[in-house]
């Protein structure tokens, strides 16, 4: 069944694509909603260090001095001009914000959006961000685990209590709660190692595979996650997966939207529930976004036989 599979569009809240017009960038979400896009996703860096050459997943998309807007702030602006589309991060470097502040910010954003927020979270790859925040880079995995578990406690308990190596509180009230039952959905990003699998089973609602993972390997890992959820007494069918659609080029050597969308069905078969496309690969800027969204929606529905 593909009726509940979502079309998810990555929006570049960084670099030259918005052309410096951040107020106009908010309207891109409204254009996406008008075209029937299901979900938009923003990415995160709080600050940048000079060593972008250490990015191991290819060429980093911007120099360190390029603008990079804070995603939760932009999503709040998008929430104000939309009513249906899901608003997501993929990923947010959760440990940089601290558990209580992140829980409060996310709960507030979920409230003003009417329950449309989804947090894709991870540790990030850049040591300089942790250094600038006064956090121990070597503890980043523990910080992520504790941060998301503490957020879950704050969203679901009144009063809340949580105790771990890095986050501790008791008799603590966070109000208002998120609109969504159980709190804001948490999509755990990254390679499916032992620690990330444990995070998904204990606190997660979804998984965002690491960049560059093949569709075949994603399918294998989805099976692993679903089995681990079942073993823990959770419903494996409830797992959400953000699967990238393999990019295809046309005869001119440029990325071709129609040929790319021909790959959508194989990603669904591999277990993806939200099929992800980066808008900047096909669309030069916000002015062209409405036409891109309409064509992407048409091709997506056709590829899935809708």
TrEMBL record:
GO terms for molecular function: oxidoreductase activity. InterPro entries: Lucif-like_OxRdtase_Rv2161c, Luciferase-like_dom, Luciferase-like_sf, SsuD_RutA_monooxygenase. Its EC number is 1.-.-.-. It comes from the Bacteria. Keywords: Flavoprotein, FMN, Monooxygenase, Oxidoreductase. Pfam families: Bac_luciferase. This is TIGR03619 family F420-dependent LLM class oxidoreductase. It comes from Streptodolium elevatio.
């Amino acid at each position: 069944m593909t009726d509940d599979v979502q079309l998810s569009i990555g929006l570049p809240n960084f670099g030259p694509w918005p052309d410096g017009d951040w107020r106009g960038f908010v309207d891109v979400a409204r254009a996406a909603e008008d075209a029937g896009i299901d979900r938009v996703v923003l990415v995160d860096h709080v600050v940048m260090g000079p060593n972008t050459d250490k990015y191991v997943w290819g060429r980093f998309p911007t120099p360190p001095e390029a603008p990079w807007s804070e995603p939760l702030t932009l999503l709040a602006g998008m929430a104000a001009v939309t009513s249906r589309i899901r608003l997501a991060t993929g990923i947010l470097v959760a440990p940089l914000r601290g558990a209580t502040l992140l829980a409060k910010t996310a709960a507030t954003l979920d409230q003003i959006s009417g329950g449309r927020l989804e947090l894709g979270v991870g540790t990030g790859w850049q040591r300089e961000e942790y250094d600038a925040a006064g956090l121990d880079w070597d503890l980043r995995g523990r910080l992520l685990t504790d941060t998301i578990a503490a957020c879950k406690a704050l969203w679901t308990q009144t009063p809340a209590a949580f105790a771990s190596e890095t986050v501790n509180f008791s008799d603590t009230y966070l109000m208002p709660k998120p609109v969504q039952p159980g709190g804001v959905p948490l999509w755990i990003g990254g390679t499916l190692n032992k620690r990330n699998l444990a995070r998904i089973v204990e606190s997660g609602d979804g998984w965002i595979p690491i960049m560059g993972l093949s569709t075949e390997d994603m399918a294998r890992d989805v099976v692993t996650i679903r089995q681990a959820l079942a073993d823990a007494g959770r419903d494996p069918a409830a797992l959400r997966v953000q699967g990238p659609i393999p990019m295809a080029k046309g005869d001119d050597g440029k990325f071709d939207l129609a040929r790319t969308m021909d790959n959508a069905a194989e990603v669904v078969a591999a277990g993806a529930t939200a099929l992800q496309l980066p808008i900047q690969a096909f669309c030069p800027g916000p002015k062209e976004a409405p036409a891109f969204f309409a064509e992407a929606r048409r091709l997506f529905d056709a590829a899935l036989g809708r």
